[in-house]
Amino acid sequence: MTNSHGAKKQELPPTAWAVLGLLSFPGERTGYELKKWADSSLRFFYWSPAISQIYAELRRLEELGYAASVRSGPEEARAKRRYAITGAGRAALSGWAADTAEAGPPVLKHGLLLRIWLGHLAEPERLRAMVDEHVERTRGELAAVREALEQADGVPEWAFPALALRWSERQHLAELELAEALLTDLAALPEAGAAGNGRAGSGADAGSRQADGDAPTPG
Question: Residue 196 pLDDT more than 70?
Answer without folding.
Answer: no
